[in-house]
Amino acid sequence: MLAVASVVGAIAGFAGTLLAGQAFVSALPAWSVVPIGGALAASLFVLPIASLLASDLKLAKRRIGLLSDERDDAVAACPRLVGPIIQGVEELARAWRDRHAEASARAKELEVRVKVAEAERRYAEAVLDTLKDAVIVADGFNELTMANRCATRLLGIDEGGFSHAKLQDLLVDERLSQEIDEALRSGRIARQRHFEHQLNGGAGEGGEAIYDVTISALPDVTTETPEREDGIGGVVAILRDVSREREISQMKTDFVSQASHELRTPLSSISAYIEMLIDSEAGDEESRQEFYQVIRAETDRVTRMIDNMLNISRIEAGIVQIERTEVDFVEAARGVLETMRPQAALKSIKLIEKSGPLVYTAQADRDMIQQVITNLVSNAVKYTPEGGRVTVTIENDDATRSVLVGVQDTGLGIPPEAIDRVFDKFYRIENYKRVAKGTGLGLNLVKHVVETVHRGGVGVESEVGMGSRFWFTIPYVHERV
Amino acid sequence: MSERNSTVLIVDDESHITHVVALKLQNAGFETVTAGDGEEGLELAVQHGPDLVITDLQMPYMSGIELAKAMYAREDLCDVPVLMLTARGYALEQGDLDDTHIESVLSKPFSPRQVLAVVEELLEKSARKATAQRSNEAA
Prior knowledge:
The structure holds 2 protein chains of 2 kinds. Chain A has 13 helices and 15 strands. Chain A is an alpha+beta fold.
């Protein structure tokens, strides 16, 4: 009896091992226990034993069975007793095994799906992070579910810690928070909210920037039975920094308004003097001649202004015709000084040209270079008091492999607050307007010709009351960019 | 006509403009004084006590508005009417005209004929006002 109990126990243990799922999955052998009794025991040794690892199972020094990892050993040893039990256990195990395999396959698939979803989310986030626009997404309950890098930076949201926090608690900006809330509440998917809004932290001056904000409600696409009646699953807000665009558009408006203002001044002289001639207000021939001179001078001024404006905008638009030749800068400077001499003589200003014995040439547009030197020398003469001196120096600048031209005067000098603006379009130092007439475009043209057309450099050093030194460099060789 | 001997101060940083306006007014019998900026304009206004001032808006040192405000703040010049000439494409705002005696604004390019007509009109108006004031005081 004891022997039978042990055998049953051993078989139950074996079945337990099977049920534990190790019997056929595990690398360890699954041991069978074969009971031995009477004739069976005697015949056992005649039967071939399949397992090399089979050994006797003993209880109180009596052989009560055979321990084997081969099912056939057991069946062969005791087909009637063990066969059906093993068969039942095996069926149970097979069913369990199938279920287990199915479950683990499903688990694997789920794991893969989660990984794919995670990867897709990271991919979408990476794409959104490359945007210069700030993108924030809230769910149907106004909880933040996604914010790209630009948004976290702009709105001061902690990049890691916003998951499902209420948007109102995260957004400092009241207007934005309110508009998003309204978009959610309105329940209309088709309607986009669109407005311009000023926020801190943009590219604009002083950290403030103008944003073009678009807020759209999203349909709930995650489920066929949306949680909200109106079917809204969330809201997306896109904030685009439009400061630079506004700045450019403002610059254009300013240019048109400044240009028309600047043109009005000579035009009012021309029209007033013409009317005076028509009304015979000029008393004598001398006065009439004077009026004609004024009209001609002011017409020239208008022409110069328009030429400068057109040249600047042509260069800016990249449609200027450039004829590059090997320009001798000493020759160019001498030509300019010759034409400027009568003007300088009126104020007894000395014009001096200084250069060494070397060759000073570079690949450039001769007419444009002459225009640049003319503008600089003409400015120097205009703002230098009587008896002063204007010196043009031509050197080779080996460091930048360029020709360096300097125009030094003994004039009024430029106040420090104005020095950064002298190359700006239409900029004129307010208090110097009386000293000389000008278009406010001459130096801007110089900058464009040197920097944009010739890839050179331009600059100025000045001290009020001591004079100014304008300089520019033109590379020896023009390299296409 | 009493205004034929009136004195008009013309202030503009464009010498061609002061010259042509002065000539037009002189030919019509006015006395004229000219200045090249607001500061000089105020000095000459104090010195000459003109009957009317014509000034440009944008000028160095002191703008036309600043000149008009400075005149308005002075007891001796607060009643002098001001005619503003402006090359700006927009009209002046009401705030600019507060605390000034700017009576009329003409935009550049302007017609000297029109300037003369406005000057005569403004001087007549201030003459009527002065007469009314005198008769009030007499009554």
